[in-house]
Design goal:
By secondary structure, the protein is α/β, with parallel strands linked by helices. Helix content is about 40%, strand content about 30%. It folds into 2 domains: about 15-160, Double Stranded RNA Binding Domain, CATH 3.30.160; about 160-190. It has helices at about 1-15, 20-40, 60-70, 165-190, and strands spanning about 45-50, 75, 85-100, 110-120, 125-140.
Length: about 190
């Protein structure tokens, strides 16, 4: 029983699970929250968040509110707050800029680029800063849609199409190599 548990533990460590696009956006939002915390005064205990009305990005706004609450910062509305935060997202996108193969008969892979950028204004502190967080990794082409969340359009990207000639050439190479091997086998054997 113990050996089975160790096997499961080490297999999880060896084969890590690829994060979904939404999980990566959560991580980027956490990075943004940390950057905002660095800019806030140490005496800040309450904050009002004003953000653009964008139904698609409300999830990210709620994630930031949640991070503030988890860190004991009260999120309120009204004038009796220590800081007023204006948050505008200029980009929250998923791109697949590159399609490639590891080797000739291998699987297709996509480069996945997830970007979260915008501007933060701290009104009472009279401070503003831009943010631009990017995550770049590689995923299998056949599985890219598993990482997207159809309910949140900002987690969906447009992948490039598979190249036509590579799909045509690979079977021709495989058939030619097999035919050559069969011909050589019978010609060498007949001598």
């Amino acid at each position: 029983m113990l050996s089975f548990q160790l096997f499961i533990f080490f297999s999880v460590l060896i084969f890590p699970q690829t994060s979904s696009n939404l999980d990566i956006f959560r991580n980027l939002t956490d990075s943004l929250t940390n950057k905002i915390f660095e800019s806030l005064r140490y005496k800040t205990t309450s904050i009002q968040i004003i953000s653009q009305e964008n139904n698609q990005l409300n999830y990210l706004n709620d994630q930031i509110r949640s991070n503030f609450i988890k860190n004991n910062l009260m999120v309120r509305t009204g004038e009796d707050v220590d800081e007023i935060l204006i948050l505008n997202f200029s980009e929250a996108s998923v791109e697949y800029p590159e399609l490639f193969k590891e080797h000739i008969f291998g699987k297709y892979f996509l480069t996945r680029k997830i970007t979260l950028s915008g501007i933060v204004i701290l009104l009472k502190k009279s401070e503003t800063f831009d943010f631009n967080f990017t995550s770049l990794d590689t995923i299998e082409y056949s599985e890219y849609s598993k990482f997207e969340n159809k309910l949140l359009p900002f987690t969906i990207g447009q992948p490039p199409k598979e190249p036509f000639f590579s799909n045509l050439i690979e079977p021709i190479i495989a058939i030619s190599a097999t035919a050559t091997a069969v011909i050589l086998f019978f010609t060498v054997r007949s001598k």
